[in-house]
Amino acid sequence: MIDSLSGLPPGSILLLGALLVPLLRGRVRQSYLLALPVVSFLHLLALPHDLTVSLALFDYDLTPVRIDRLSLVWGYIFHIAALLTVIYALHVKDNVQHVSALIYVGSAVAAVFAGDLITLFVFWELTAVSSVFLIWARRTERSYRAGMRYLIIHVGSGVLLLAGTLLYFDATGSIAFGHLGLGTTATNLIFLAFGIKCAFPLLHNWLQDSYPEATVTGAVFLSAFTTKLAVYALARAFAGTEILIWIGAAMTAFPIFYAFIENDLRRVLSYSLNNQLGFMVVGIGVGTELALNGTAAHAFCHILYKALLFMSMGAVLYRTGEIRASELGGLYRSMPWTAGFCIVGAASISAFPLFSGFVSKSMIVSASAHEKLIAVWLILQFASAGVFHHAGIKVPFFTFFGHDSGLRAKEPPWNMLLAMGIAAFFCVFLAVFPGYLYNILPYPVDYAPYTTGHVIGQLQLLMFGALAFCLLILSGFYPPEIRAINLDTDWFYRKGGRAFYWIMDKVLNGLNRGVAWLIMQRIPSRLNRYSQNGMGSLAMLVVEPFWIAAGIDRYRRKEKRTLFYNRLQRGTLPIGLIALSVIVCLCVLVFFTELV
Amino acid sequence: MDSKNEPEGLDSPRSGRRVLGIVAVICAVLALADLFYTKHVHYGWERWFNFFGLFGFASCAFLALAVKALRRVAMREEDYYDR
Q1: Which sign, positive or negative, has the C-alpha torsion A82, A86, A88, A94?
Q2: Nearest-angstrom CA–CA distance, A489 and A78
């Protein structure tokens, strides 16, 4: 069967297969959902590992498939993550989630194997459009709004990518998705498009805004693909771009502060996701073989342990309906397996020896040290301690230990536990046998993670961080978990957007109302009045001063005025008065004519 | 089940102090381990006794202080955006 599918590009089995899901029910659907990523993975393995497929479309030379060692790392891990997340979501009955998730995964795989920028753009946008349904599927007002913001930002990223692609084609005659580098408007636009999807500092907040609003299973899918696709795109097109070192270093550091004080634990994980992306971006910026290997390896491990952490928090949310640290605690009693898997994920993200983060993150940190990037190295060490603090300790501690919340939720369904178990197995397996991971990296690996100095140094960093945590907690200096949110850059477009709407409402709609009143009411009524009394009023202007000069009091003047208007309406005015008005009008006319 | 009738768990204050003791012992062992191997370093300060331990401790202590300041600036009510 796999041979007969060899003409299909990677990802297409998932994309096409998704369309049949709504036709199936029950166990047949579950089996089909499980089979799709497996068949798609086998199909990828059966394809040659150095393959380029090209075709001409109008003036463009498209390369819809380009398989090489760099794209294969992402291809492998995307399929493993797809299988794990499908298992995790197997109990879900909502077809919208299954279909959108499979299209999302399929388009992410297809984007990774895209060899030209147009193909990349198509699947780049498709990941955005399909994945937003995983947020909307929660069917709340908050998720609807968060999804809309997510969609606008990601479609915007795609538009920038398309604009950059067209400018690039105009300048070079090529749309090849290879190394681009910064320097021209075209490549700068493409860099910005990648940067938005990769959650660069100040462009990052869509991530923390949207992922925590997704469904229990949707957040696990989201955590794996979108940002790692962006990391791949940066590694492909901007490896060795120095500014990425500093962008990445900033990314590792600033989310830690927010993660520390955030109450929603899936949002804490979103901030720590952002922090881990920073390590990968630093690796791309350094651009050496060791650094790029480190980025690929870290993306691989990160997808697994981050999915595992999102799965464990999803299980807690699924069973308790609660995800705020201030409301949780003590769940290890009734959810021991989930707690154990969460701790494995937490140890992996913290890069404890014998857990996966250790064998991948250390490659990037070592690469920065080889290049003598002192400040960057210090920031990365600080970020390593920080991530242990919030993702390694805070997430499991406040959920499963901490103070007893009294919640006694049972373990999640078997499929959720199985997915967590497999992910936890990989987290340990990759760390104990890193050779399997190193063998699939883009460049030959000459790196030994388990040196005495490295193991002891890392353990010192982490355990003294844990000591600080214990002392802070027991002394009461640890910032407590509070039912609150924290302002981030989304404030500018969430409150700014409302302010813009308010201003537009008041200014433009006010102008609209004003003009409508003037044209539709005021001017017609004035014209109407003038046609009735205009001549009389003009005449009054002339006559009134004479009446005043003649000593007529105001009561008498009022009577005369009323009489005058009555006569005017009946058309019984003395001819002299009309003649006088005409003369006055003529005088006014002549006066203005002379003036001009 | 009423949680008050359960035996004392890992979330009790006494357990916290016990964990602190264990962590402190592990830290002491790790710090002393520095004396028993030759360090191959990129930067001179990595040779300092227990450099990474001090760095990790200082980083976490700094974080706890810094986020208190961040909270003063950034923290809002949960329904801040819904109002």
Answers
A1: positive
A2: 30
Reduce the DSSP state of residue A375 to 3 states and report it. helix
Nearest CB neighbour to B27, from listed A404, A467, A482? A467
Interface contact flag, A261 B51, Cβ < 8 Å? no
> Which residues in chain B touch residue A466, judged by CB atoms under 8 angstroms apart?
23
Whole-angstrom distance, CA of residue A446 vs CA of residue A224: 28
Bridge-based pairing state of the strands A485-486 and A60-67 = unpaired
Which strand (E) or helix (H) includes residue A63? strand A60-67
The closest alpha carbon to A18, from A89, A107, A79, belongs to A107
B1/A459 touch (CB, cutoff 8 Å), yes or no:
no
**Pairs of CB atoms within 8 A across A/B:** 163
Please tell me the distance in Å from B52's CA to the nearest CA on chain A.
5
Alpha carbon distance A548, A45 (integer Å): 107
Residues A391-447 have pLDDT tens digits of 888 999 999 988 888 888 899 999 999 999 999 999 999 999 999 999 999 999 999
Q: How many CA atoms lie within 13 A of A142 on its CB side?
A: 14
Distances in Å between the alpha carbon of A255 and those of A270, A277, A488? 9, 11, 10
- For residue A402, what is the nearest residue in chain B, using CA coordinates? B11
What contacts A396, CB < 8 A, 6 or more positions away?
A: A339, A342, A343, A346
pTM, 2 dp = 0.87
Which residues, including other chains, have CB under 8 Å from residue A101's CB and lie 6 or more apart?
A: A85, A86, A89, A130, A134, A217, A218, A221
- Amino acid identity of residue A260, one-letter, is F
Q: What is the pLDDT of residues A253-306, one digit of tens each?
A: 999 999 999 999 999 999 999 999 999 999 999 999 999 999 999 999 999 999
